[in-house]
Queue: 4 jobs
Job 1
Amino acid sequence: MKYSIPLLALALAAGCSAPEKQPADGYKQTLVFGPGEETKITEAFLTLTDSSAIELKAGTYKFNNLSLVQLKHIRISGAGPDKTILDFSTQTQGGEGIRVAEVKGFTINGMTIRESKGDLLKVNKSEDVVIRDVHAIWQVADSTSGGYGIYPVLCSNVLVENCYAQGASDAGIYVGQSNKAIVRKSKAFKNVAGCEIENTTNAEVYDNEFYGNTAGFLVFDLPDLSQRGGQIKAYNNYIHDNNERNFAKSGSFGTTWGVGNAAPGCGVIIQATSDVEIYNNRIINNNSAAIAMVSGFFVDAKAGEKVNASYFPVSQNIFIHDNTIEMADAFPEPVYHHHTGQVLVAIEKALGKRIPPIVYDGISTNVITQEQKINPDSICIRQTGDNLFVNADGLNIGTAKWKPGTDIQPFICK
């Protein structure tokens, strides 16, 4: 193309006044490393400046840990989860594999992270977080595994996409105390909880597969944390065959409030949170309860003493509709050896027939207000099928008054 003199002069003038051009992806510098350069990579993490990208070539890397703190616009990339492997199995210091804190604009993609002593990827107090095509794996799924595979906490604007988590002794994919989060097109297998959304607001969980865990998908609020959760939607997920033993650690993960309470064989557990919609999911062969709704009182009689602006022990505004739900005719064997599982077995025995797939502990805000309202917490169920629901009469379990019932009418959506 030929330029006229005036046009060429304008182009040159514009070029002279323009700032220094950045690479097409917007990062000011890109550092590329290969296997064998672990020392350089560790140093690069510690000395990285804003608007930097690190690319890790295909191969296996061995690290103690990696840390990024107080940065902006950072990307860590690999060649793909089956090609770039970050191995933390020989850790001699630190618990976490990769720790990210106070980063505004963080992306990590295209790698497998495996075998740390603690959490594999923890992203703390960060904004605009993208975790894509990351596999977080402990090959041996037991209490020696770290707690969380993929673990954004106290973050805002989080996307977890096309990820895979395996072997976590708490949750494979966990979003905690965060605001605005999406978990999609991801898989979790052989964890205690496949995916957990805890004390988080405005989250969507869709197009995922959670299978072979103790429990598939958990929406929890716990006390003594920074915020109350709510506004959670889970849809178009395939949640199946979550019937494995609970191997949560004692102590922080296996306490009264921890995921150690999740009974083997639960597809979805909703506990002490609000404004949750569970719909258009396939919840199949989770053979203790397809969906369990419980209050904080179910696991702690003193839950009422913990009420404050950040915690309310009773779930409210729960909408369950249009899911495909199927259960086998018998409990999974691990449920008989678990404290909460034994309650589910006792419910079935009391009913004299197979436990229904939707289990509600029946503990409402009436226990706090001392009223006798019917469905005061707006539990709304729109599902088809026979033997669909049980109110476990949780306040009277273990007493002569205990009488679980199957009347779903008060909870059918009006």
Job 2
Amino acid sequence: MNLLERLNQDMKNAMKNKEKDRLSVIRMVKSSLQNEKYKLGRELTDDDSLTVLNRELKQRKDSLHEFEKANREDLASKLREEINVLEDYMPEQLSEEEVSQIVLETIAEVGASTKGDMGKVMGAIMPKVKGKADGGLVNRLVQKHLS
């Protein structure tokens, strides 16, 4: 079952179970996917869908951080719920050890040795871990292994 089919099924279930917050997030994701489809002018691949999900998740995490800094717990709790719903549709996340192993392998592949090679390493790693690891974690591990 692809992402759109799963979203449609979950939307029906959320309507039946009167889960307004979950329904709202699902509708927002479907809308974002539809917008991306029109923007690209073609059907979305699984990779395209994952990119949209990542974008939505990142926006919410950034907003959550800002709301927590401003002590807006009312808004932060709503965003946490939205993040939980979005994470249901994301692939299983890699552990820090798994990401570290991928970083080491990629550094060896591209022959990187200094922090100046960071862009080359990041460019090679990100397609491998897309949707499965946070970019901030990858960045931190690359810096750690290149220093």
Job 3
Amino acid sequence: MSSSVPADTPIRVAIVDDQAMVRQGFGALLGAQPDITVVGDGSDGDEAVELVRRTRPDVILMDIRMPRMNGLDATRAVLSRPGDDNPRIIMLTTFDADEYVFAALRAGASGFLLKDASADDLISAVRIVAGGEALLAPSVTKRLIADYAARPERKQSASLSQVTERELDVMRLVAAGHTNAEIAGLLFLSEQTVKTHVSRLLSKLGLRDRTQLVITAYESGLVTAGE
């Protein structure tokens, strides 16, 4: 798992989209923030892989549908690199029910945004992901994960045999979309204890962040859509 960006260090962002206007618009918006530095941009997945090698971004805004190498394949390529310094990836899409989204999240993307998201949502997304959290707040993300989980062809292959009962309680609440503070209140724990449980879950299950933890909760059958 990659670590979060230190609070006093500018967040290095790369933007990969086949539309020049999207790259320019997002670049201008993010570059104007005092805590964000745009280190480069590209128009397809091949350029994304090269950008990571050359500029070492903390966060990539990655379009899903692009020529040559699409965003899904680029995500797999970027996150399969050895080492623990791989960037966190926010997928960009114009669709709220894109087949690629499920595969991208499973491949290790930290979340996604619709391209028509507000400026505040875009900036917040970069900061959230750079801080080590998954982008689970937008309702569309929860809806997509629930839709994916309800599909009969999904595989229930994830093993939770090494997870404690208390960790399972935390995992269920994470899958329900609760924050650490909310989970602490529901389970009568301190917020730091909840953070520790989440960290242990990620380590035991070999996951990058909360998004993958949610998907694993569904894939294992720990929770089902509609619960």
Job 4
Amino acid sequence: MDKLKLVMIGNGMAGVRTLEELLRIAPDLYDITVFGAEPHPNYNRILLSPVLAGEQTLDEIVLNPLAWYARHGITLHLGQAVTKIDRIRRTVTAADGSTAAYDRLLIATGSQPFVPPVPGADLDGVLSYRDIADTQAMIEAARTHRHAVVIGGGLLGLEAANGLALRGMAVTVVHLGEWLLNRQLDPTAGALLEASLRQRGLDFALGAQTAALQGDARGRVRAVRLQDGRELPADLVVMAAGIVPHTALAEQAGLLCQRGIVVNDTLQTVTDPRIYAVGECAAHRGVAYGLVAPLFEQARVCATHLAQFGIGRYRGSQTHTQLKVTGIHLFSAGDFMGGEGTEAILLSDPAGGLYKKLVLQGDRLVGVCLYGDTADGPWYFELLREGRALGPLRDRLMFGQRACQGAAPAQAPTWREAA
């Protein structure tokens, strides 16, 4: 009996994790073809920052070498972006004209950097930070240039800034928010982070907006001009102002896209049940996730349905934040800002670089923000995600899991008990 044909567009972490799960539970169901736009096998994109910082090499972050694809009989097209999906003929066509027929199609095209529409964004020396090519270009620029400006004080921007500083560049981060990681930290933790990074030689323009990038006679960027009139010298500008789901191909194929390719709880597209989507390109219940844990949760569910087991539902994910900068430890999850109907338990030691904030609503933990000591972050996240009643843990909660041993919280009621 002929195998079914599975084609995957995209060769990143979410898509390949789906294939790993599928091969584990249904190794002989499909002939698999993969198209990857980059000329590299699957690698750990979240470790690009340590590569930029000189702490790891590109070879060390490869997750699935070429031998893995060969071992599983996967036909791999590297450096070939798919340009067309024909849903009637059930084929895909790549940039080099090669085609592949499918019975099931998995779209895992990820996301692309958001580049603010400012004058000068097309100058030489202006880069985004998304893949191996961007990382290599930044490493090369650091060898021959002195001044860098990173636009965006989020996770990716700070990791880029730290890496460039470690390679000897003078780096200024321009951030629209009033404090760093303003979507992941509260103002107190953001201020502690800023102080730590300034000690490493980074500079910051907070609450600042980029007006234009200015070039020299050769067409290379030389400065960043802010809305308030300040000019920052810049031989290199890194755009790290966010990401947007890569949906152009899906839109051309007529798939419904709203903040990503719209999928249901089985990760099937709502437009075409033969087509699935996972990862940063997918929008589930109105949310497109940009962190790796939700993408792997999607992969597990999607694989069960590709395997025709008909089990598993993806209900959405709770997420937490960590920064990949050596020596800086922070963790946040849930409603860490708090608000009406909540109360916060605080421990603050600015001189020691320590800050803990636990946000409670009734008898449950709903938010956590840690800086300096994050050892209990995963435990707090488990309490938050499972919605457990704290009970006798409440008085000891600030002191972490070890202090709470022997005073186990009551489990959340089951649905039968709740009924």
